[in-house]
Amino acid sequence: MKVTFLGTGTSQGVPVIACNCEVCLSPDKKDKRLRTSILIETADKTIVVDSGPDFRYQLLRENVKDLDAVLFTHEHKDHIAGLDDIRPFNYLLHKVIDVYATERVQTALKREFYYIFAETKYHGLPQINLHTVTNGQDFKIGESTITPFEVMHHLLPITGYRIGDFTYITDAKTISEESFSKIKGSKILVINALQKEPHISHFTLGEAIAFADKVGAATTYLTHISHNLGKHEDIEKELPNHIRLAYDGLQIEL
After folding, report:
1. Measured between alpha carbons, how far is 35 from 252 in angstroms, rounded to an integer?
2. How many helices (H) and strands (E) are present in the chain, helices listed first?
3. Where is the Metallo-beta-lactamase domain (predicted)?
4. Which of 28, 141, 207, 228 is a good FRET partner for 114, with 20 to 30 A between their CA atoms?
């Protein structure tokens, strides 16, 4: 399995519009962060987790030529806004894309993309098959078993996903012991780390490191990073060897 980080930034991305901080002005390409999303390529399927506002450019940048499924973590705009950009796969590949989301997230998709679900169809609409995710209940995409589990983004439930030895979590602030039992034993963990200062709905850098140590994965990658965290080069020097900052375009293989 190969995982590509399509984006590793928070909801505003990095650089932030009109910001003149040292991170936003950094010439380092690793400090240029689009909204958070990953591409997962298994032996038989191509999957993305979340399709944010930068989705079209992310797919073009990584030269993605196929797509089978989209998994959604939650309904915030920085995670769903690009769903319409699946249309080329519909019409060039003659494929209907499987979309997996909890019932609450499906309600948001039906509100934000009402035209996809309207009774009256017209040419050019995105074509999807909607599947209901129930946290704690495994499902399969091709040969891969997907384990969804719930974490909390302050008061909003978020779905994390585990595929084999790989676990992906974004927008987490608290994680129950029940969900931790689904994560434990992962060899590769991806977890959000917004900034160093306390935040009501996101792990701080310190909280993310503590959680990574609790999980004990061989390698943990930090994502959903804001400009407040600091420059990539500087933060990397502060991290223990088993924890790394992810960056846009990073690829890992399992």
Report:
1. 19
2. 8, 14
3. 34-224
4. 141
